[in-house]
Structures are given as structure tokens and as C-alpha cells.
From TrEMBL, chains A, B:
Organism: Kocuria aegyptia
Protein name: FAD-dependent oxidoreductase
Ranges for domain FAD/NAD(P)-binding: 19-311
All residue ranges annotated as the BFD-like [2Fe-2S]-binding domain in the record: 480-528
Cofactor(s) essential for the protein: siroheme; [4Fe-4S] cluster
The family this protein is said to belong to: Belongs to the nitrite and sulfite reductase 4Fe-4S domain family.
Top-level lineage group: Bacteria
């Protein structure tokens, strides 16, 4: 879907010499900085980046992997401070922004709660403050999100490196883990911990996990698959309190029905909330995030922008085809959409600068929302992908005239549900335990292509005699890395130009540098190229 | 399933010269007579057949076809009275048996209500009295089943030639038809009438048609397929009365909710009841039919037998693996099981005569119940086959440890449900709109073979590229004609021996002489043989 209108002519386009300040230094900010660092190096703009953590930007998406010992910090760096400094980027780590003074275009910054407050001027402000984990309302836990630093020992989310270290200590001694929340990240952490040898239980409030992404059958079959993978789910459960021992360490989660689920670690995974306090304090509009229009502008003067998890695209045009249905959608928690915003904003600034240099006006294709982002469970034991609207039944009429196709094999534990529009494009889908069908169906969904007249052909991709069929279908336009939006063709080009490892392909194309779920696919492409040469 | 015990040594085995009297001359009686006519011709036994109708035996299964103009009486004959007479068979048509005097082994027979009552002695009595249509409890209709002859004009079932003629008159002028009852026969009649150009509505009391054979999704999708074929179903409907015009002719069916469904014809299709009055009057045990044991004996002296729709196999052995589950099952209405009983009883008599001639004791393999008979909707517009137990869902555990596989394509209107036992043999199935899958699944069910590890391969048989796969699977053991139980191999043998038409194959093997649903398959085999030669 594209926004309702083309990018309007810039009112106050960026001019050479302006000072761009980026607040936040997570993966989305790092991507933006990466894309405009050359402008800073050339002296076209001044660029300052302010990070709250003392570590430079790392791939936050991999914090769960780090926690369960499947990734190391060394491989998670997203930015090289020395290189940035040499490019002329001002990098302020361990620094907090306490206020935005929009009238004077000045930030108040401090090196910590006790630090002195300094002023820092800006011409353009890019907010990439991300999100923070939600805290449950449980006896024994302070539900104020800002109390996150003061959780009892053994109670943590998986947001930053400190969290990862706390979890890893328990995982390494194979301690018992209770995961609160059956969303994607909670399930991935539970499966990884189980694979690492920990006894794990997931507690979920609704009748089935991934409640918003799955229908009841999909939820039931996923629940079975999780149990088979050593991750029993306690569904429809209301947690009441954390049971702590005398030194205030977690020792069990008490449910409303009186049961106690013992454990050494309570992993909180009940969603995230956009960090909007700064924007709120500056009088900017916020809803589930900092409200921006389709050009990512948070204010009418086009001086403040927001990208990534802290931003919510929500325009005021009642005829906009994109926004109404999105109202009330919070941060996605996925890196892909934020990366595309970072990329687009950098390109916008560059186009404005180019236009000023050429004495013209910038014209830039508007940022398009891709199809609804897919949920993919990244785990070795369970294969699940789903996206979009998945309600309805094959034997009931759909209000829009569309139809539903459903396959469920209770024996194999596999499930596929396709919700088709009248033109046979996909409104949504669920695919469990059928990895090749999932890839093909995801492709049809992302490209807005029609599902074959006989959808049964999709199931064959995982059949005993599928063989080369799936490879044949991979075209140069097939997206391999969904985080960075990298196609098969671009990866093949990089390999042809000399990239000989997954890491080298990542450097050349950014493929596999997000969630890492495509690493095996990239490795296959590299190996096939090597074999062909 | 086989009965619990082998056939016991005959207490009073049949001896040469005995008089066998068959009461009834429907398809099952005709089959029995056909199988023992040579014994009569050779003078080994005396054989008398008593038919209530004045017409000789005709294929009652085709009455619906006759009614809708798709069959003619000429092609429906099952017996040639002249040939039987020349074989020495006494054929008494238009004759009613009013009483069985078991102590004297004598029947009271009459040529009609006003006719004189004569006595007719027997040594062995074979009851093949069949069943009669159930009548609904509706204002305007006398519900006494014996009042069948006195239904209002335009209200009829489809049991005999008179019914067929009444229906055909309406069908030929494309009159509006209301079918009461959404069972197999009602739906087949409705589809045939619709195909012949009549506006048709089916009224069914339950939420979906074929209620006992289908689950809710299958029922809903079949309902849609019927509507698409011009046969709307009014489900969950309670009929209240028939609306008649001044000359007592049907003009509409009034429902409990006040709606009137207008029509020129009300076709009653709400099941049949075994004709057991004669047996009851003779002190024989009856339940849903004349109760017989696994040797088809209705009395302990082995003088009275029952076969076909009037018989209910229900032994007294509490450990019998066959009977308990069958308790309460009424007449099947299918010709296949009756034909197998007729065939077996004829073989039993022959074996007893042979044993007496050889001075020994007859030993005969007991009559085995095949797997649960499949329900196959014989219609051009809708393809449906189902059998066995079809409850349960893929995402819910089954008490027996089995599993369920389900495919539903709301767009194509196709549906498949396989209920698997722990060993992957079929407990039951539903297949709608997938004719080749239905054939293969029916085969797996009938043979007790395991469903493939990836049941998705079954769907491919109806896929766009299925081609020759299905033919390859047809083995010499594949049953082509389910009524007469004729395999592919026997048909091929008949064709090899010179049978060059469907009719000639029918004469040689009886294939296609039942419901006629396999005629296309037989024709294909004949043509393939011709092409190969």
C-alpha cells in the first residue's frame, strides 16, 4: 500500500551545514547514521548521535541469542565508534536527553541522573528512542516502567546487554525458567532456553499463544508443537504474584488459581511500549508512539522526525487508505520496518540537499508500507510464519467475498490457513510445520500475487518428492533477508563480486545482519555459487 | 470385521428335494434366485418366488433415475420370468403372503385383499421383504406406513414403479419439487430433478444434510455445493403440514415457522423401515429388522432366513466384536450388503447340498461384514464420498490416540477429512469435490491400508498435473463396482474374454448393474482395452 498522496514539496528543505542530531543509538538509529555518515564526512552536514547506553550500537534483535548463548557480543556490533569519529560524527554515549526546547531548537543533555545538564543545538532532530519492555501488574513487582532498573533479582526482560547477561548466567547452569508472555519473542526465548537444556514453562493469559497472529486451531497446534519441543504452555493463566526468597530473588510465579510455577528466572515478554516521554514533554503528538506523517515528520516545521519503534505513522487525512486500519497498532518490535524508515529518511535528506545544490525542489517517492509484516518464529524446533488477518473459516462466507483455505494434519502437527481476497491475493496466512510452503506463501503475500487455483500445490513443496521445485521458484526478486529487504539477486551479485562468506555478504548487502534468520539461506547461496564456479 | 466364531456345523443341513420359498422379489431376492436357479433347473431343489408387485424384479436402486428420466424401465429388469419358468422356478407375482405357520411350515398366500387365501408349504423360507418408506408426521398425511397407498396426489416417496411414474410426470413438465429429507436418496433425487430442469428445494430437519455421515464443515460445504447446483437446502426446518388444493393435490409444504414452500410435488425421503410384519406375526424376533445371526438364520431350526433390507444381523453373543456397535442400525438402503448376503446364503445352501452328497459336513467361511459401507452421492453436479466415524478435529486429541487430517478450500468448495486410527488406517472419511482423492481414500478405507505419512499426496490426485498417477494406482484388486463388489481385474478379464460394452461387462460380472455409478469407469476400461488391442 502506498500513502494517499505523493510527497509534498518540502517547505523547509534541508540545507548544507545543518546540524542533524539523532537521539537513540539502537539498530534503527545506527542504520540512519550509516546512511548519512558520508554527508558528515564530506562536511555537508554536522551529525551528532546521542546514546543512553555506554555501549555503542549493537544488534538488539540478537539480545535473546546472546542470552541463550547462541550469539556473542563481538558479532553484534552495528557501528564502529572509531570509524564514526573519523567520519566526523559526534558520538555521545551514556548520555541522556532530558528535554527538547523546540522554540530554541535546543536539547538538554546530561551524562546521568547526577550529571550536569548541558544544551545542544540542532537544526533537524531525529528521534529513534525505541521502546521499553512492559512490566506486569504482579504483587512483588513495581509496575512503573521506569522502575525497570529495580526489578527483583531473577526477574528480567530481554532488552539490553545487562538483561542478556542476567539470563545467560541462569541458562549456563541450566536453571529452571518461567517465561511470562506467549508472543514471538517470549516463545523464541523459551525455545532457545529449552534447546540449551533449561526446563522451561511459558505462561500466557489468552487461550492460545501468539493470540493476535493465530486462530484457535493454529494456536492449539502450535501449543502442541511447543510442548513436543519441551516448552509446555500454561494458557489462559492469570499470574498473580512473584514469589521471592529472603534475599529478594525470584523463586516462582504464583497464578490466580493458586498454582506456583517454580523457577530461577522469570523472563518478562509481554510486549513493549514506545518511549515517547521526550516527545510528549516537547508538546509533540503521541498515541501508541510519536505520531508522524507519511514523511516521518513529527512537527509541522519539519524539524523533528521519528523513526523505528518510537514512531507511529498516523496521518490526519480521513481518506488515507493506510492509516485508519493501523490505528491503535503499537511498536512492531521488528527491525525491518524501522530500517526502511531510517533508509528512507536518509534518502530524503540527501535528496533535499541535492535539490538545493541543483537549485530545484526535491522529489522523492513516498515511503511505502510493505504488506503487513510477517511473524516468523525463529527457532530450530518449530517452524511458524503468519501475517495479516487470519480469521474466518473455509465453510463460512466472508463479508468481503473472499474465501479461506485450510489444511490441518493432526498427526504431523502441520497447519496452513490462507485467507484470500476475491482476487485470490492473500489477506493473511498461517503456516506451521511446512517451511517451504511458508516461504512460498510469504512470497505470494509480500508480492501481492494470487494464490494458485489449486492451493494444494503449495503443500507439495514440503512433500516427500518436492526436491528441486522450491529452488526453481527462487527468482532474483525473491526476498531472502526480510529484515534488511535484500533479494536473492542482490546476494548473488555480491557473491559474484567476491563475497565468499555469510559475513562478507552481510557487509556488502546487509543481508543476515538483522534477526539472522536468513543465515542458512545466504550460506546456501554462497555454497551453490562456489560449487558452480 | 469377521464374526466372532466360525460357521457352526449345520444342525439340519439342506437336503436334495427341499422346497425353498423366497418371499419378496426385489434386487436382493433376484440375486439369490439367480444364484440358485441352476439347482432348481437340475431338480436338486424346488424353488418358489413370491412377489407382491405384478412386475417382475427390477432394479429398485434405479427408481430415482427412472423418475427423473435418466433410466428406462427396459434397462432395469433383473430377472426374465420366461427364463425362470423354463428353469423350473415357480414365480408368483402380485401375490401377498399373509401369514407364516412355522409349526406346519406353511405360508398363507393370496392374490390381493379380496383374493382367496391358499396354503403353500416350504422347507426353507428366505424372507427378502425389503423395506418401506417412512411417512412424516404432518397435518394432511396419515402417518400409518400402511397408508402409503393413500397419500394425497403429488405426495410420494421413490420406492416402486408407480412412484417413479408419478414423479416423472412432474419432472417432464419441469414442475416445482419439494424434497423432504436431506439423506443420500433425497439429495440424489433433488440433484437429478434440478438437472432435468425442475426448480427444487430440499427441506431438512437438522442443521446440515447427510447429518449422520458428515461433520458441520462438510455439511456446510455440501450445502453450498448443492445451492450452486440449483438445489437450495432449507436446513434446521420443521415441516408442519402439507397444503392441499380443493382436489386434494399437493401445492406446498408449510413449515413450523410459517413459511410455505410451494410445489407440485412433495418427494418424501426420510428413510425406510424394514418390513417385518410377517416375521413378527410368526413369532420371530425383530428389532430394526428381522433379527438374524451371522449365518442369516432367523429361527433356531434354520428353516427361516432373512436377507437384504428386511434383515438385521444382531447375534446374542455379548463378546461379538461386530454386533454391539451395530445395535440400532436400521436398513442401509444400499444394495451392496444385501447382494452379498444373497450370494452368501446361496453358497451356503449349495455347500450343504454338496456336503450331503459327499456324505460329509458343510464348512463355509462365515459372511464377513466389509468395512463400513461408504456413502457416495451419485450426481453429476456434486462429488461426495464418506464413510465411518467422521467426528473430531485435527487440533484436538482423539481418545483412541488417533489423529485427524483436514483440508478445506472455501474457494473451490472442496473438502477432505480423514479420521485416522493410531496405525494410520481410516476410521472414517469425508471427501467432497475431489473425485480422484475420494477413489483413493475409499480404497485405503476398504482395504484397511494406512494413509501415507504425508496425506497431502492424496490431494494431488485432483491437482492440475495429476495425469496418469491415478490410473497407475488402479490395481487388479481395486473395487470398481461397489454394489456388486467387482474388481478391476475381473472386469479386465471379462473384457479380455470378449465383453465389448458396459452391458456385456455387466452380464459377465454384474459390474454396473447396481446403482450404475461405476458405468463411466467400466466404459473407460472397455475403451482402454479396445485402444490397446
Amino acid at each position: 500500500m502506498t500513502p494517499h498522496r505523493p510527497l509534498r514539496p518540502a517547505g523547509t528543505p534541508m540545507r548544507p551545514g545543518e546540524h542533524v542530531v539523532v537521539v537513540g543509538f539502537g539498530p534503527v538509529a545506527a542504520r540512519f547514521v550509516d546512511d548519512v555518515a558520508d554527508l558528515a564526512a564530506a562536511g555537508t552536514i554536522r551529525l551528532t548521535v546521542i546514546g543512553g547506553e555506554t555501549d555503542p550500537a549493537y544488534n538488539r534483535v540478537l539480545v535473546g541469542e546472546l542470552a541463550t548463548g547462541r550469539a556473542e557480543l563481538a558479532g553484534m556490533a552495528l557501528a564502529d565508534p572509531g570509524l564514526l569519529a573519523r567520519s566526523g560524527v559526534d558520538l555521545l554515549l551514556g548520555t541522556e536527553v532530558t528535554r527538547i526546547d523546540r522554540s530554541r531548537r535546543v536539547l538538554h543533555v546530561t551524562d546521568g541522573p547526577a550529571g550536569e545538564v548541558r544544551e545542544l543545538g540542532y537544526d533537524r532532530l531525529v528521534l529513534a528512542t525505541g521502546s521499553r519492555p512492559n512490566l506486569p501488574v504482579l504483587r512483588g513487582i513495581n509496575p512503573d516502567p521506569r522502575a525497570y532498573e529495580h526489578l527483583p533479582a531473577g526477574v528480567t526482560a530481554l532488552r539490553d546487554l545487562r538483561d542478556a547477561r542476567a539470563v545467560r548466567a541462569v541458562v549456563e547452569r541450566r536453571g529452571r525458567v518461567v517465561v511470562l508472555g506467549g508472543g514471538v519473542l517470549g516463545l523464541e526465548a523459551a525455545l532457545a532456553a529449552s534447546e540449551a537444556g533449561c526446563p522451561v514453562t511459558v505462561v500466557h493469559h489468552a487461550p492460545w499463544v501468539l493470540t493476535r497472529s493465530l486462530d484457535a486451531p493454529g494456536g492449539a497446534l502450535l501449543g502442541r508443537a511447543l510442548a513436543d519441543a519441551g516448552v509446555p504452555v500454561v494458557s489462559g493463566a492469570q499470574a498473580r504474584e512473584v514469589s521471592l526468597d529472603e534475599d529478594r530473588s525470584f523463586r516462582g510465579l504464583v497464578l490466580e488459581d493458586g498454582r506456583t510455577l517454580p523457577g530461577e528466572l522469570l523472563l518478562l515478554s509481554i510486549g513493549v511500549t514506545a518511549r515517547t516521554e521526550l516527545a510528549e514533554g516537547a508538546g509533540l503528538r503521541t498515541a501508541r508512539g510519536i505520531v508522524v506523517d507519511h514523511e516521518l515528520e513529527a512537527d509541522v516545521e519539519q524539524r523533528v522526525f521519528a523513526i523505528g519503534d518510537c514512531a507511529e505513522v498516523l496521518c490526519k487525512d480521513p481518506s488515507c487508505r493506510v492509516c485508519p486500519g493501523r490505528e491503535g497498532v503499537g511498536p512492531s518490535g521488528l527491525v525491518g520496518p524501522g530500517w526502511r524508515q531510517a533508509e528512507w529518511l536518509a534518502a530524503r535528506f540527501r535528496a533535499e540537499l541535492d535539490a538545493v545544490a541543483a537549485g530545484g525542489t526535491a522529489v522523492l517517492a513516498p515511503l511505502t508500507d510493505g504488506p503487513a509484516a510477517a511473524v516468523r518464529l525463529k527457532a530450530h524446533q518449530v517452524e511458524l510464519a503468519c501475517a495479516g488477518t487470519v480469521g474466518g473459516l473455509p465453510w463460512e462466507p466472508r463479508p468481503d467475498g473472499g474465501t479461506v483455505v485450510q489444511w490441518a494434519d493432526g498427526s504431523a502437527g502441520s497447519y496452513a490457513k490462507l485467507v484470500l481476497r476475491p482476487d485470490r491475493t492473500l489477506e493473511g496466512y498461517i503456516v506451521l510445520g511446512l517451511p517451504r510452503a511458508a516461504a512460498e506463501i510469504g512470497l505470494l503475500h509480500d508480492r501481492g500475487e494470487a494464490v494458485p487455483e489449486d492451493p494444494g500445490v503449495l503443500l507439495r513443496l514440503d512433500g516427500p518428492d518436492a526436491g528441486a521445485r522450491q529452488e526453481a521458484r527462487m527468482t532474483p526478486e525473491s526476498t531472502v533477508c526480510h529484515c534488511a529487504g535484500v533479494t536473492m539477486g542482490r546476494i548473488a551479485d555480491a557473491v559474484g563480486a567476491g563475497a565468499a562468506t555469510v559475513e562478507e555478504v552481510g557487509c556488502a548487502t546487509r543481508a543476515s545482519t538483522g534477526c539472522g534468520g536468513c543465515k542458512d539461506a545466504v550460506r546456501r547461496i554462497v555454497e551453490e555459487h562456489a560449487a558452480a564456479v
